[in-house]
């Protein structure tokens, strides 16, 4: 088959996959996972990521990460890990490229705001929204809604952060309070995704690549914005060691290059650690198939204990110093208001939705209208959300870090 190359026994094999919800003839030039990657890249939801917030709103500057550049960095790291472990790189890449498709405008602020707005109707979860996008909301094909992705890609999209149910069928900790999102359960009834099992090693590679990318680029962006200071990073032992190494190898290096050297060392250390630790765990498990990875009872593509602590310590530093910095929080409060205002306007007057979005809502109940509005707002870019707010509401905030 085109694109075939060496894989470990525990890797997902596209030639032996579980297929698609809607049967399609195989491609003569691409594996199923390569087709999935291409379909994701060509989707409207993927293009919209270019103007969705990571930490800093898009108009803060051209060099800050957006949700799209974050996704591309995750994809690159996932491929590197997958290659080192003998996994299917295309599947790891497809899952990485799709993992943030469900994020609304304004990053986690937008997600929190929509979750509050939709609390009476099942809430909002960006993983469930990504599944809705690739199985229902993209309208690119004549024969089906969504992208009709392979089972392995959908499994990775839904479960890359771990099982959603325990062995008794109860929601795991993340979903214990409110249950597994309805969109996931509805799709699982059509094509069971094994919600009580771990996902493939490829999905695990994509998930940990997300953590690595966050650590590195949020650190970089925070320093670039002047919210983080190099001098303060020595309080994080992991970073202190890297900064000492840079100083030893490159005395008196200017700040800009120091930041770049630090960022790439963060990525390198974490990637090398994951590959080593995953290799150790896989050797101990001795899996003969991808299903053996799924049934292992724990993730195998993980950090070692020392680097897991480094990951936690870095996140503990970034939480108050960056994510909850007063300037960032001020923008988050304004962004929250934009999302809530838009939701209120469109649910009160669905006729203000574009024609294709209000179709079929003439006699719809409150729940259906709210979910449709939630889908519409979740698909907005930061820029479009602000334009709509200016058109429909008074006193649209500037959303700039002062």
Keywords, separated by commas or semicolons:
17 helices; mainly alpha; putative deoxyguanosinetriphosphate triphosphohydrolase fold; Hypothetical protein af1432; 57% helix; 402 residues; 3 domains; globular
- Report helical residue fraction: 55-70%
Number of domains: 3
Instruction: Tell me the fraction of residues in β-strands, as a range.
Output: under 5%
CATH superfamily of the largest domain: Hypothetical protein af1432
The biggest beta sheet is recorded as:
none
Overview of the molecule:
- With 402 residues, this protein is mainly α.
- It has 3 domains: 14-190, Orthogonal Bundle (Hypothetical protein af1432); 210-323, putative deoxyguanosinetriphosphate triphosphohydrolase fold, CATH 1.10.3410; 327-392, no CATH class.
- It contains 17 helices and no strands.
- α14 (326-348) packs across α16 (366-378).
- The longest helix is centred in the C-terminal third of the chain and has 31 residues, at 255-285.
- Residues 57-62 have low confidence and may be disordered.
Task: Give a quick summary of the entry.
Belongs to the dGTPase family. Type 2 subfamily. By secondary structure, the protein is an all-alpha fold.
Write the layout of secondary structure elements.
Blueprint: H1 32-41, H2 44-48, H3 67-85, H4 89-98, H5 107-117, H6 126-137, H7 151-159, H8 182-190, H9 201-225, H10 237-249, H11 255-285, H12 290-294, H13 305-323, H14 326-348, H15 355-358, H16 366-378, H17 382-392
Protein name: Deoxyguanosinetriphosphate triphosphohydrolase-like protein
GO molecular function: dGTPase activity
Keywords: Hydrolase
């Amino acid at each position: 088959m085109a694109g075939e190359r060496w894989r470990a026994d525990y890797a997902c094999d596209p030639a032996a996959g579980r297929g698609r919800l809607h049967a399609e003839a195989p491609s003569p030039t691409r594996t199923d996972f390569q087709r999935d990657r291409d379909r994701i890249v060509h989707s409207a939801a993927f293009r919209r990521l270019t103007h969705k917030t990571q930490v800093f709103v898009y108009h803060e500057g051209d060099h800050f990460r957006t949700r799209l550049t974050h996704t591309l960095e995750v994809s690159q790291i996932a491929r590197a890990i997958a290659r080192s472990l003998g996994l299917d790189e295309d599947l790891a890449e497809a899952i990485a490229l799709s993992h943030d498709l469900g994020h609304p405008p304004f990053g986690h602020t937008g997600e929190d705001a929509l979750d509050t707005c939709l609390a009476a109707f099942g809430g909002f979860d960006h993983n469930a929204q990504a599944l809705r996008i690739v199985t229902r909301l993209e309208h690119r094909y004549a024969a089906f809604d969504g992208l009709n992705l392979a089972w392995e890609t959908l499994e990775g999209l839904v479960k890359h952060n771990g099982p959603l149910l325990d062995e008794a069928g109860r929601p795991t900790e993340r979903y214990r309070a409110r249950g597994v999102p309805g969109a996931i359960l509805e799709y699982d009834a059509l094509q069971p995704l094994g919600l009580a099992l771990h996902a493939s090693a490829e999905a695990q590679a994509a998930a940990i690549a997300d953590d690595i990318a966050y650590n590195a680029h949020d650190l970089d962006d925070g320093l670039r914005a002047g919210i983080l200071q190099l001098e303060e990073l020595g309080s994080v032992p992991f970073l202190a060691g890297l900064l000492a190494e840079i100083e030893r190898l490159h005395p008196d290096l200017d700040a800009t290059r120091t930041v770049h050297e630090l960022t790439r060392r963060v990525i390198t250390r974490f990637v090398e650690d994951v590959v080593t630790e995953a290799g150790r765990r896989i050797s101990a498990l001795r899996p003969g198939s991808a299903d053996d990875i799924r049934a292992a009872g724990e993730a195998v593509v993980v950090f070692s204990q020392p680097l897991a602590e480094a990951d936690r310590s870095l996140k503990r530093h970034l939480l108050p110093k960056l994510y909850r910095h007063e300037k960032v929080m001020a923008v988050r409060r304004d962004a929250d208001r934009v999302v809530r205002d838009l939701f209120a306007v469109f649910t009160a007057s669905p006729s203000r939705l574009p024609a294709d979005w209000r179709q079929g809502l003439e006699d719809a109940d409150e729940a259906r209208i709210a979910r449709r509005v939630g889908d519409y707002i979740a698909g907005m870019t930061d820029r479009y959300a602000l334009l709509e707010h200016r058109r429909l509401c008074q006193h649209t905030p500037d959303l700039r870090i002062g």
